[in-house]
Design a protein that fits this description.
The complex is a heterodimer of chains A (about 280) and B (about 300).
Chain A (H helix, E strand, L loop, with lengths): L1 H33 L4 H6 L11 H9 L2 H32 L5 H12 L3 H14 L6 H9 L3 H12 L3 H9 L4 H12 L1 H17 L2 H6 L8 H6 L9 H21 L1 H12 L3
Helix pairs in contact in A: 3-14, 4-7, 4-8, 4-11, 11-14, 11-15
Chain B lengths: L16 H35 L2 E2 L7 E2 L3 H8 L1 H32 L6 H8 L1 H4 L2 H12 L5 H8 L11 H29 L3 H9 L4 H29 L3 H6 L11 H11 L3 H25 L10
Antiparallel strand pairs in B: 1-2
The chains are: A mainly alpha (about 280), B mainly alpha (about 300).
């Protein structure tokens, strides 16, 4: 008698969980659904599945609303910053974890000390620097402030590499390997999980970032997706289906990457959200 | 010891050649990272503090005005309003988000199938661009054709002007904020719950504790450090809310959703009052600092750091 009851309980449990998830994710399903409807259906339809999917909404968004250009800029900016951060933070993380040099701990504590300072504080002076350099509306202006990495990334890689046993380096040193070889041949392969975590966290935050690109770009040519999309709100008549198509193109790439790299996202969240 | 110059390559002379090489390598490896840190983090912090004492429109030379920016801000009704809106945002967002996340985390904290899939699905909104989900919700909230009002009409209720009315706009934006970041906190709490040793929970069951007593006497004290840290990070983050209000309402209708950072952005980059905007940034840092200190004093003492 007990077993079937247990099974029913199990099934109920999963039903509850997936019902919560369905409601929780419904706004995103609604977004996808609207992006494939005709305007007629948008205003009259209350159904989740469009009668006949209208893919033209996507081409309209890409062509007529400049979304193609914005998307390209976002890919370029988020991609380059992620690449730069992974390289720069892995170098600095290695030095802070493994190499001895005067001032090392002082510099590292300086990093940690500024981590809690709100990003808003550095916003205006950083803008002034970019303005003085003449980098408004340029690729440099968008990427240079972030491409060298940040305290979070350096901290993450340092913590990880501190757990790497010294024997590995010592063996390499005996074989005559220099610091660069140790970094590229031992540390980078060892740090792969941490580097992947840093890469996905950086990619998502840069792909989605709004404030910085908003203030350093004015011309459509250099706008990224977040900035371009935010301007949609100001249009007098909104074509909801085209807008939702643009919105899907902004969110779907990161959702796909989330599913491909689940483990690293979970680790990234745990690292930034747990008391260390 | 001879002088040591930070970040340079001049190293104490008494070092062995090997140690010297190691130190030089260390400086070289941190150089790109350190340069970025100095130019776009450390220097800007100092400059922001100085700019806050000036009046500057980016075009003419800055004029030193002492504490005038701070005095003017403290007298300005719009500034007060933005502080009030932000506090309201924090006070609603943080507790509701934490409680919901804790509830779901407890629900998920057992050996279940699809554990990874479920966790991943919960963070889908978190990886989605805030501007994009903001626009999606703008559509759902639409007064005439939006999904929510459609549902209200069908069950026979009156339509609600979600984003169109000052009384509703802020809470509507907060709901989206709670929704978007809920998954993040679920993952954090779930990790915290999984750190609790099995034996402790089992011992409580053996002692005949009811689920409710078990939650308040065992689970809650044991995850309190995780909860406490998450709360602080959440408060600091919510004080800086910008993307959702910017994308959904632009601060309107009227000033209904003009939160602190949105007003700071408008001051700096629309009205070109860089001095006042910098003073606002410095004040935000102070407000966050005081709040964090308050949390440590009032709540921090009750946090249990043993066992975890």
């Amino acid at each position: 008698m007990k077993k079937p009851l247990r099974l029913v309980g199990e099934i109920c449990f999963y039903l509850v969980i997936f019902a919560i998830l369905f409601v929780y994710l419904f706004p995103l399903l609604w977004q996808l659904s609207t992006s494939l409807k005709t305007m007629d259906e948008v205003f009259r339809g209350f159904s989740l599945i469009p009668k006949t999917p209208l893919w033209e909404n996507y081409t309209t968004a890409l062509r007529d609303f400049n979304v193609g250009r914005f998307l390209l800029n976002t890919i370029l900016v988020a991609g380059l910053i992620t690449l730069g951060q992974v390289i720069s933070c892995s170098m600095a993380g290695y030095a802070f974890a493994k190499l001895r040099f005067p001032g090392r701990d002082f510099i590292f504590f300086l990093y940690l000390g500024t981590m809690m300072i709100p990003a808003t504080v550095t916003l205006i002076p950083s803008y002034v620097i970019i303005l003085e350099l003449g980098w408004i509306d340029s690729l440099q202006g968008l990427i240079v402030p972030f491409v060298f990495g940040n305290a979070f990334g350096t901290f993450l890689i340092r913590q990880f590499l501190q757990g790497v046993p010294r024997d590995l380096e010592e063996a390499a040193e005996i074989d005559g390997a220099g610091y660069f070889v140790i970094w590229s041949r031992i540390m980078i392969p060892m740090a792969k999980p941490a580097l992947a975590t840093l890469a996905v966290m950086t990619l998502v935050s840069q792909w989605n970032s709004l404030v910085w690109p908003l203030i350093v770009t004015q011309a459509d040519k250099w706008k990224v997706l977040s900035v371009g999309l935010a301007a949609f709100r100001l249009f007098r008549t909104i074509q909801w289906n085209t807008m939702m198509a643009a919105v899907v193109m902004a969110t779907l790439p990161m959702i796909i990457i989330l599913f491909l790299a689940q483990r690293f996202f979970i680790q990234g969240i745990q690292f930034s959200g747990l008391n260390r | 010891m001879p002088p040591v110059i930070l970040g340079g390559v001049i190293v104490a002379r008494k070092m062995s050649p090997k140690r010297k090489r190691e130190a030089v390598a260390g400086y070289l490896f941190i150089t790109p990272n350190l340069l970025g840190f100095l130019i776009f983090q450390l220097v800007p912090i100092v400059v922001a503090i100085l700019l806050a004492f000036t009046e500057w429109d980016l075009i003419n030379d800055p004029i030193w005005v002492g504490f005038a920016n701070y005095r003017n801000l403290l007298k300005e009704p719009v500034f007060h309003l933005s502080v009030k809106k932000t506090l309201y945002f924090v006070v609603i967002n943080v507790p509701v988000q934490s409680m919901l996340a804790l509830l779901i985390a407890i629900l998920l904290n057992r050996s279940i199938r699809f554990q990874n899939l479920i966790r991943t699905l919960f963070i889908v909104p978190w990886v989605s661009m805030a501007v994009a989900v903001g626009l999606t919700w703008t559509w759902i909230y639409n007064s005439q054709f939006g999904l929510l009002n459609e549902i209200l009409t069908r069950v026979g209720l009156d339509k609600i002007p979600w984003l169109a009315h000052p009384d509703w706009a802020l809470i509507s934006v907060i709901v989206v904020n709670i929704w978007q970041f809920l998954g993040f906190h679920i993952i954090v709490f779930l990790a915290g719950l999984q750190m609790i040793p099995r034996e402790v929970e089992e011992a409580a069951i053996v002692d005949g504790a009811t689920p409710l007593t078990r939650f308040f006497k065992v689970t809650l004290p044991l995850i309190s450090p995780v909860l406490f840290y998450d709360l602080i990070v959440n408060v600091i983050g919510t004080f800086q809310a910008f993307d959702l209000p910017y994308a959904m309402t632009g601060g309107g209708p009227g000033s209904a959703t003009r939160v602190y950072n949105l007003y700071l952005y408008q001051k700096g980059f629309q009205f070109l009052r860089m001095g006042e905007a910098s003073a606002m940034a410095v004040m935000l840092f102070i407000i966050i600092g005081i709040t964090t200190a308050f949390f440590f004093r009032v709540v921090g003492r009750r946090v249990n750091y043993d066992l975890t």
